[in-house]
Write a structure and sequence with these properties.
With about 200 residues, the protein is an alpha+beta fold. The chain contains 2 helices and 9 strands. Bound molecules: 2-acetamido-2-deoxy-beta-D-glucopyranose (NAG).
Length: about 200
């Protein structure tokens, strides 16, 4: 009786161990199959994604000439683009954007500050914080003082009062209230012109 029991236990152990080894090899086999799959799917994909990633999205701004754009340092002008993609039936029916001139270059960005939502046509354009080829001018909201990289729209350290920026007291309070939502970038657009002085925008 005791012998039979021992035999049964032994048999059980053998079954269990063989089961666990087979499940171990299966588990070991799975990731390598996955790896093979992913390397298979990666190879044909990468050339197609890189060849289609250059978007052709330049649009002519109707009725706007290069002479309508600002040309004085730090000047900001509102331009109605009337273009789908910028127009917003509720808040921006004419598709207005801000255009700014600084150091002989043109910049375009969304009308309202991403922090306090006040129009940016009276904002301050400031030189880059440091010298360097990659440095971009800054845009500082005249109401709340939120400051952005004028080329990328990314938020940067807020410009200070000593730079003639910093917003006003009420704006500072609004900025304080919005701070919990995190700093958002401001949408920027690239501009260009053709030989007839018409203005193009990249959407
Ligand atoms: C921008 O601000 C103006 C004035 O406060 C407002 O009328 C307009 O709806 C705002 N536009 C957007 C896109 O928030």
């Amino acid at each position: 009786m005791a012998l039979l029991l021992t035999l049964i236990i032994l048999a059980l152990i053998t079954i269990c161990s063989s089961y666990s080894t087979s499940s171990f090899t299966m588990r070991k086999g799975r990731p390598s199959a996955k790896k093979a799959m992913s390397s298979l799917s990666k190879n044909p994909n990468s050339p197609t994604t890189s060849s289609t990633s250059i978007p052709s999205n330049w649009k002519l701004i109707p009725d706007i000439k290069t002479s309508d754009l600002p040309d004085k340092d730090g000047q900001i002008t509102l331009i109605d683009t009337n273009l789908d993609g910028i127009k917003d039936a509720g808040v921006n029916p004419t598709g207005a954007i801000c255009c700014a001139s600084f150091a002989g270059k043109l910049y375009a960005f969304k009308v309202n500050c991403s922090c306090c939502q006040v129009p940016m046509n009276k904002a301050k354009i400031l030189p880059p914080p440091e010298a360097g080829l990659l440095e971009a001018p800054r845009l500082s909201c005249d109401f709340c003082g939120s400051t952005f990289n004028l080329r990328t729209g990314e938020p940067v350290d807020d410009a200070t009062k000593s730079e003639g920026a910093g917003g006003n007291m009420l704006g500072g309070m609004v900025k304080g209230l919005m701070k919990s939502r995190g700093r958002k970038p401001i949408k920027v657009y690239a501009l260009s012109s053709d030989d007839k002085g018409r203005v193009l925008i990249s959407l």
